[in-house]
Amino acid sequence: MSLKTVAAAKLLVSNWSIPKLDRVLEQSEIKTSQSLRYVSPNNIKVSCVQMALGAEMPAKECLDLIISNVNSAVSDGSQLIVFPEYLGLMPILSSSSLFDAAYQFSEDLIHDKRDEVQPPIQFYTKYLAAPLFDSYCHFFSMLAIKASIYILAGTTILKTRAGLCNRAFLFDPDGNIVLTQDKLHLSPAEKLCGMTAGKTVQSAQTKLCRVSILSGKDQRVFEAASAAHMQGSQLLLCPAAFSFSHSSAYFQSCAFMRCQEQPVFAVSSWLTGDFMDLPFRAISGIYAPFSASKLGNGVIMQTERPAAHACLTARIDLERLSQDPDLYISDLNPAIEEMARREYGLARQIEIVPDDGEDDSEEPSDSDQTAAPSPNLQEDFPQGF
User: Fold this and answer.
1) Which domains, ranges and CATH numbers included, belong to the chain?
2) Which of 146-155, 334-343, 346-355 has the lowest mean pLDDT?
3) Residues 287-312 pLDDT 10s
4) Residues 6 or more apart in contact with residue 168 via CB below 8 angstroms
């Protein structure tokens, strides 16, 4: 890397230093929540943040965006807020000097250029990983104290003895880290960067309930949610980023589906927006088992605009997780219902020949055969079957 890039990295670290972050926190109006003074298992409020990316955002604008989401959640009575994956790398977006290097790095990742991505990874490890992690932890710890709520601060890229890892951090209202979780199932880009995957699913008991974190692709894996449930977790916190799929079916296979397989709630927060010439679209939301959601569809609340910024807050009732699901009303499929109605009506039109007890080896004469309509099943099935 050039001396200009090194100087830009040192300037970035200076702009995100702990003293400057403290100054921003002191000057910002941060609302303090009173919702954790009394916690009821049937009235827990959680929030998800769908955050729109923006290139070359000033540091103050990045911090104000985070604080405004926390204030919005506190105003709605939230007790826990979940931010998207990779939030710890947001400082890099604020550096206009490093933007070109970041853009080239993203292009190399897209085209699987393994040799070209190694120098930027080494540069990040040497100059940015440690100071940005210290600033990240300090800022969210102080923010959790001032707001007096639980904050899942997305994830950040952390330097460990085994290498770089994508780790999520949950801060409690006292500013302590109560739960960390390394990403278990890495994306192709993360593997190309040489990151190390986590080994196990962790869980922690909070004032609200027992929680686990499933980052990114982890929320698409049945075994990860099952392991969390076996440890007693009732709430899955799912920060995610960078979905190239615009299909709602893709997002239904994530946190939403884990709630139908295990009796748990889930809060899913995604990054979205247009960045590095790539459009990212996402659907963030708060999900429940079919039988624990008001409309019976498993969705408590969900974003309607996949490219827009949003902060959603909703109530979850932990007591409903112990109720046995009604399989007849849990998963309604209009196409299947219509097909069943047609088949039932068709069956009633077919004359049933009574069994006279005669030997089956005797073939009935033509006069004894009862003509029955030969239904055209192809026409009776709805389109798509």
Assistant:
1) 3-329 (3.60.110.10), 333-351+371-385 (no CATH)
2) 346-355
3) 999 988 888 889 999 998 888 899 99
4) 85, 152, 153, 154, 155, 180, 181, 183, 213, 215, 237, 239
